[in-house]
Specification:
The complex is a heterodimer of chains A (332) and B (385).
Chain A (H helix, E strand, L loop, with lengths): L7 H6 L1 H29 L6 H18 L8 H36 L4 H27 L4 H4 L6 E2 L8 E5 L2 E4 H23 L1 H11 L1 H6 L4 H26 L2 E2 L4 H15 L4 H21 L5 H15 L15
Antiparallel strand pairs in A: 1-4, 2-3
Helix pairs in contact in A: 2-7, 2-10, 2-11, 2-12, 3-4, 3-5, 3-10, 3-11, 4-5, 4-10, 7-8, 7-10, 8-10, 11-12, 11-13, 12-13
Chain B lengths: L1 H24 L2 H17 L22 H24 L7 H16 L4 H10 L9 H23 L4 H21 L1 H4 L28 H22 L2 H11 L1 H6 L4 H27 L9 H14 L4 H17 L7 H15 L8 H16 L5
Classes of the chains: A mainly alpha (332), B mainly alpha (385).
Chain lengths: 332, 385
């Protein structure tokens, strides 16, 4: 504990390694951050329950792999199949959860034009409910049926290793392993697809229109309710993808996993400029790197504090984030 | 189904209002007399032996917990709710990190009052004091108040310029930071081990403590309820003062308040600091009573419980938040068989109350009107999101 409280030597000697670690962590934050950013961009509200959308995704992936009887290190062909199936199931589960949240909690409040604080409190309550459903209700109901998932409730559940981690190539003294590469590449690919979707398609135009001016968009024939459903589903799908990548990279889940992760993803969204899709990617990657650097400089048990301190500092000096708020203004 | 619930709820609030109207119609001496009777009843509660009411006692069920202990917890939570009500209910700032102030108050008495704390041990070594020396409990009160007040200002200064929902997330982070710092700074807080031998009014727990001991909790409850009554009085005065009116103005429309010459930042900071001090005081009582604290006691769930007490009870109304606090502290203790489900129930209660009755169970009249206004606006402009 003494002496190595501040440790710069390790950071500089392995800076490449830490950067890669941070990027692969940040890519997951970025994917979750998209959910916050999309909803904020259109509705100007922070969907606090989004972290639980991610949590449901990780459970869906674990459930699927348990049901398929996946063992550690399956052959490559099967591994790819499991991953694709995992992506589909996680996307459906998370997207569905996000949609359900919108229906149950937000729609009735929107009808009443409730102040933003009320949306937030509802979302907090809902996120508590979801955490408890996975930590308490499902274990009681399904504990005997699926002991590996719900047997004891609230415990950390390991996921099978689908792809074994091995070093692909080395640059200088930086080892880049296959999982890190997959995580970063697929996360960036998903972001690019989403960015294209929002900026190039008809549906995306609807989203941007509502983000910019809901009333005018409604007059122009944009179905607002559908746009809102769309953004929740899109955010949910991204969270599902993040859940799969999380399962590959870290290999565990828990009913309370969403809280800290959600806060970090939110920090990433704010960092990049909440409401801005590209900002979310930038913010996520940046936060991942800062966190890994910080954990090296201080001790790893300070890691969570670093994200919060970054959040406070960003909000103090540049509350609109690195790229500024803009879902509607992005070349509308 | 929802309409049915709404209907029942309307009848309930009508009944509540008529009770309120009758109360206000009573002559003053009758009101004073019944208030005094109520206060006496509050002090009598731990001895509760009225036939028919004894089933209220939590030790009347098998394996139930100490009745006075539960009452003490309720009183501390009411103090928390009153403090948080200043922040959320009056000034309209959603503070999700209130547990941080509670923890600071608790750690203040632990760090300065306990002979086991590294801080006290360092002072002893520095000034050649005997190993039994520690800061007296009565002085710790001021240390706890000042520390939580200052931490409220430190947190509020940079963050209160933010919009409401950003503020909520930042404060949530703050609560976590306090807990992680308490866990990681082993040289100061003894980390996960926690600090024991925290003093009460009679010094650290020992067999010669006759009144404020660990076994008999009744005196602790009487102490806590006295503090609560004092604070209710103080906050009520504050509410009806210029400061209180400024808070309401800011809550209702910050820009309009600013135009009318109320400087929002200053009053928001005041609300934050006063709320923090009350939270710190509650934490201080809590730590003194249990004589032991560790970082796991100050988790996020508890912070959300605090918010739930305020919003479920009826934010902005002191009676409402007190009832909310008592309900949320008492029900899991009395109905132990469902205690496992309490977090689920809190979550559901928060969602249901917000959707059906955003003004809470016992609303403040002003806030109810405010929400009605917004709903009417929504009717007029259906296209608005």
């Amino acid at each position: 504990m003494q002496g190595d409280l501040v440790n710069f030597a390790d950071l500089f000697s392995h800076i490449g390694q830490h950067t890669v670690d941070g990027l692969s962590k940040g890519a997951i934050y970025a994917l979750i951050a998209l959910g916050y950013t999309l909803v904020y961009g259109v509705l100007r509200l922070i969907n606090f329950a989004h972290s639980e959308v991610f949590m449901v995704g990780t459970f869906a992936v674990l459930g699927l792999w348990t049901a398929l009887g996946v063992e550690n290190n399956p052959p490559l062909g099967q591994a790819v199949l499991f991953l694709v199936l995992g992506l589909i199931v996680a996307a459906i589960a998370s997207g569905g959860t996000a949609l359900a949240i919108e229906r149950v909690a937000y729609r009735p409040l929107r009808r009443k034009n409730a102040p933003p604080l009320i949306f937030l409190i509802t979302a907090i309550g809902l996120s508590l409910v979801l955490v408890e459903i996975f930590g308490l209700v499902l274990p009681k109901l399904l504990g005997d049926l699926v002991p590996s998932m719900f047997g004891r409730g609230r415990i950390i559940l390991g996921m099978p290793t689908i792809i074994e981690q091995k070093t692909l190539f080395t640059i200088g003294n930086t080892d880049i392993n296959n999982i890190q590469l997959i995580v970063i590449v697929s996360a960036v690919a998903m972001m690019v697809v989403l960015d294209r979707f929002i900026n190039r398609t008809r549906y995306g135009r609807g989203v941007r229109a509502v983000a910019q001016n809901p009333e005018t968009a409604a007059l122009m024939g944009v179905n607002q309710e559908r746009v809102i459903m769309l953004i929740f589903v899109l955010g949910g799908i991204m969270a599902g993808a993040a859940a799969l990548l999380w399962g590959m990279r870290f290999g565990f889940t828990q009913n309370s996993i969403g809280f800290v992760l959600g806060l970090k993803a939110f920090t990433a969204a704010v960092l990049g400029g909440i409401g801005n899709l590209r900002g979310a990617l930038l913010g996520g990657l940046f936060l991942g790197i800062v966190e890994v650097y910080g954990a090296t400089i201080f001790a790893s048990n300070w890691e969570d504090v670093i994200a919060f301190v970054v959040l406070v500092i960003v909000l103090m000096f540049r509350p609109t984030g690195i790229l500024g708020e803009s879902l509607g203004r992005a070349r509308a | 189904m929802i309409d049915k619930i709404r209907d029942l709820d309307r009848k309930r609030t009508d009944a509540l209002h008529s009770v309120g109207d009758r109360w206000r119609a009573l002559p003053k001496w009758q009101r004073v007399l019944s208030f005094v009777a109520f206060v006496i009843f509050l002090y009598y509660l731990p001895l509760l032996g009225i036939p028919g009411l004894t089933w209220l006692r939590t030790d009347s069920i098998s394996g139930g917990s100490n009745w006075a202990g539960v009452l003490f917890t309720c009183a501390v939570y009411v103090l928390v709710a009153i403090g948080l009500n200043v922040v959320i209910g009056l000034a309209g700032l959603l503070d999700l990190g209130y547990i941080g102030f509670f923890a600071i108050g608790a750690y203040a008495v632990a760090l300065f009052g306990s002979v086991n704390s590294p801080v006290v041990q360092w002072i002893q070594a520095e000034f050649n004091l005997p190993t039994t020396w520690a800061v007296a409990w009565a002085i710790c009160v001021f240390i706890a108040l000042v520390m939580s007040l200052i931490s409220g200002v430190i947190l509020g200064w940079p963050t209160l310029r933010l919009r409401g929902d950003y503020l909520a997330i930042v404060t949530l982070g703050f609560g976590e930071i306090i807990r992680i710092v308490a866990r990681n700074l082993e040289g100061v807080t003894r980390g996960p081990q926690g600090i024991s031998a925290i003093p009460g009014p009679e010094g650290p727990p020992s067999p010669d403590n006759q009144i404020f001991g660990l076994v008999d909790v009744k005196p602790w409850y009487w102490l806590a309820i006295s503090v609560v009554l004092l604070m209710v009085f103080a906050v009520r005065r504050l509410e009806n003062s210029r400061v209180g009116r400024s808070w309401l103005a800011i809550r209702e429309d910050e820009d309009a308040a600013a135009v009318m010459g109320v400087y929002p930042f200053k009053f928001k900071l005041w609300a934050f600091a006063i709320g923090a001090a009350l939270g710190g005081f509650a934490g201080f009582l809590f730590a003194s009573r249990y004589a032991f604290i560790d970082p796991t006691q100050f988790n996020v769930n508890l912070s959300i419980l605090f918010v739930a007490m305020v919003v479920v009870g009826g934010s902005g109304n002191m009676v409402g938040v007190s009832v909310g606090a008592v309900l949320l502290a008492y029900l899991p203790e009395r109905f132990r068989e469902v205690a496992d489900y309490r977090w689920l129930a809190f979550g559901l209660a928060m969602v249901l109350v917000m959707i059906l009755r955003p003004q809470g169970l016992i609303p403040s009249g002003r806030r109810a009107r405010e929400l009605k206004d917004r709903a009417a606006e929504a009717e007029e402009a259906p296209a608005h999101v």
